[in-house]
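Dear U.,

For the methods section draft, I wanted the exact inputs and outputs in one place so we can describe them consistently. I've listed the two proteins in the order they'll appear in the manuscript figures. Please don't edit the token lines directly; just add comments below if something needs changing.

First protein:
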Amino acid sequence: MNNLQAFFSHNKKQQDNIKKPISKSFIDENGNAIEWEFAPISPERDAELKTESTKRSLITQGKRKGQYNTDFDHFKYQRLLAVESIVFPNLNDKDLQDSYGVYGATELLGKMLTIGEITEAAKAAQEVNGYDLELDDLVEEVKN
């Protein structure tokens, strides 16, 4: 196979889902933390999540009046990426949402997990989607 053929779609290695115990609050019959399963999302869906996490606001005063500020909410993006990447448990399951008294996968995740566990879910989502940076590194990058 020449070098170019290695890039053909039929030679591309598929990204495997990953399984990780995210919370000690959900245990099996043996007392072990149940693993959550994460799958990669498509680049198109990622672009939609980034758009949903971006807010444009019109500048009404000063030298830049009439221009727009673009603010990217990194924390919102991380949570949306985690929600989209989780395939087990099914956060869109109506019965699961009803058991927590919420509507929607994002709200459910916030009820099911602590903030530290949500961070762990976000790290797993980054990993399965091919991000090499750790969440803390991304947070620092956004701050600077």
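Second protein (the one for the lower panel):
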Amino acid sequence: MTQGNPLEVVVAGIKLVHPVMNASGFLGYTKEHIRRLASYGFSAIVTKTITPYPKKGYEPPIIIALPNGGLLNAVGLENPGKNCINDLVEESKKFGVPIIISAGGSTEEEFMNVAIEAELRGASAVELNLSCPHAKGYGIEIGADPQKVFSVVKNVSSVIKIPVIAKLGLSDKILDSAGKALEGGAKALTLINTVKAMTIDVYTLKPILSNIFGGLSGPPIHPIAVRVIYEVYKEYKTDIIGCGGVASWEDAAEFIAAGAKAIQVGTAIAFHNNPSELVKSMLKGLRTWLYMHKFKSIDEAVGAAQKV
């Protein structure tokens, strides 16, 4: 921690000036997206999930805003393929912000392919998307199987030197999957991804999303994420990046108290008129919160709710 900056953290070996980064999602696969995310004040930029080759997404409708403040989306991991990584890394370097490449794949070889490209182009880390709930063969089918998690993480970790972060979603084997990810070489865990859900139009009697199922994000999943972070930190005491419904400093602080060392913000960016002000308010709130509890750093606050 730098003298005078209680918010500085080191996650998966990456030094961050504060714990708030963006979540992999709708932004992060063009240079313009990188510029926008950097302008919001995030301490690191996480790209949209990138696959080895261009991937077409689902037909609209693919995103629905829900009355409860959540979002339901089934974009289908649409992205231009790994050839975009060089431009994304180069753009992030202009702002001096670490960039984490979210890697997707339907096989171990595909994950390795993207990870190797990320390291070659100078990325700070790779976040393995092992938990997308709506892209068949690309996500939750892997993350819900601890042995598959171990195999993917181990193989990716064996071919790159930059840190590997495993992003896991909700499943009844989340604790086992987390343990296997760490055993395979993950330096941190991102918890959690969106939760598989659906919504039906009661007038047409048809599912609204073209893919039928989508990923639920935003405030509705926040308490679920708190519970998962709490349990995983209690079991493994590892670096955790909390993700799921963070829309205020209180949400961020709750994740930290549960066991997270850093935070990702996703849905709140889409709903907020001024994301840079959102980030500023979170950082101001976290500083006050640390002072209130006499914590000298974020590190001292991590897992505080488990020490009470």
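Candidate sentences for the figure legend, describing the second protein: The chain has a mean pLDDT of 93. The chain has eleven helices and 16 strands.

Thanks,
Y.
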